[in-house]
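2024-03-11 09:14:02 DEBUG pipeline.ingest accepted 1 chain
2024-03-11 09:14:02 DEBUG pipeline.ingest length=544
2024-03-11 09:14:03 DEBUG pipeline.predict start
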Amino acid sequence: MTGILFYAFLLSLLIGTVLTPCLMLGATRMGFLDQPDLRKVHKEPIARVGGMAFAIGALVAIGYWAPSSQMILAILAGSLIIVIMGSLDDFFDLRVRYKFGGQVLAAGVVAISTSISWQPLSSLLSVDLPAWVSIALTIFVLVTMTNAMNLSDGLDGLAGGLAFLSFGLVAYLAYQIHDSFVLYLVLPVMGGLLGFLRFNTYPARVFMGDGGSQFLGFVLGVSALLLTQTDRSPISPWLVLFMFGVPLMDLVAVTMQRLLRGGSPFKADREHMHHKLLALGFSHHQVVLILYGLQLVLVSLAYACRWSSEGFLMGLYLLLLAGLGSFYYGVASGRLRPEAFRTWSTGVLYWRTWVASNQWLSQWCLYGLLTGMMGFFLLGIFLSFSVPKGISYLALGLVVLVFIGTLGNAKTMLLTTRMALYLGSTFVLYSLEHVLVDVAQPLTALFQGFFVLLIVGLVLAIHLDKDKRFQPNPMDYLLLLLAIAIPGLLTIQLGPVDVGEMMAKLIVLFFVCEVLLQAFSSKVRQLGYVSGMVLLCLAFRVFW
């Protein structure tokens, strides 16, 4: 099962990574762009097709790898309705009634066709709601959570990062209670989302659009409800509220604020949490980082309270809402002013002041990273095990794509080189992990030490670079945190390979590839040739 889950994650990651730039190009040529206005933060027209890319990747992976059942078909059908209606709204700006109609239809398909329901009183009062009440409540919950994620999509990388953290919590809880069905849903979404986020972090080159944000909210809602079904899991249904974290709390707080002012709860404004933090003087980058941190706290709190009673969870959630409401009141009333946060926005959170520049050391670190990656690729070519035919054919296709890309313009060349470096690193690492299982312990320790040196080199190369060619964004910090945490959280074995440890190493390798692409931007063609040769050698190993 673990092997299939990994392949589903990888397939979705591949589709999301490849399809995102293709859809970006098509949307730009057809004029399907998100135009800036007074309510939005971006200043230039940007394509809103990224959500279609990772949604297609996730749905294809789920449909291909997940065990066929009526529940899977209903979830796929509901998700497809959400993506189609959300994408139509992106392109043609549908009326609110049609948007809600599509969401209710999608939620209804799941609630009526499956046993998925939200029963908040089942454990608290030992009472099961009547079927028609349960269906109506489940539809309401799914529509609310779909819109909560949709409304959180206000800054570059924000909704995607918040959703990634929530999906990570759901995946880990499902892994703990051995719920493979939920894992088949959330891991492909995480893979596709990871492929998309590289294009969406500040400054974003593509937006996920309503199709993507609603898809994330809908699938997260379905997965969370499944994970807390009383007949499947000992986890309380009230933990669903914590799993959504910032998006749901923000939706509740903003809705209450609008109602108290006598306005419509459906009218768009600039009163969301990210708008308020921007008004307090924090930069775009800092606001996303703060909200990631808050989401991480809420997700960690949900994990810590996963076995708590319903009464405790209800009280804690109301207490958190009261705290958030106090913050909203403070900003709206003017009691909280930008001056009170200036020390944080210009000092503590301004990472460029943490380390003094030292150019020669930065250059040496960059060349060290380049040498390390070349050595890593050579080791993988000469020591890797027999590559499966499917991977060989995929590598051959990528080789053709890379060499065609090197003949194109700078953007095409950079895109194909990045794809080759990312996927080449994945294939080489997967091969080496199989080989290292059978070698002496000192060699395995040297390989682990190699990754420690890569991390040290990355930190120095990034923070000591005067030209700031690679500027970390909040998603980068989130991925580094995951790289540190994953080996301790996941103990999944894919044959002889520790999947958690391999994923952590893969994140580090992706960072190195990205830093090298930025630092040696004038040598992208040469990097493309090198990555193409690596893939070519890996592809022909099937014939050795």
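2024-03-11 09:14:41 DEBUG pipeline.report Confidence is low (pLDDT under 50) at residues 351-357.
2024-03-11 09:14:41 DEBUG pipeline.predict end
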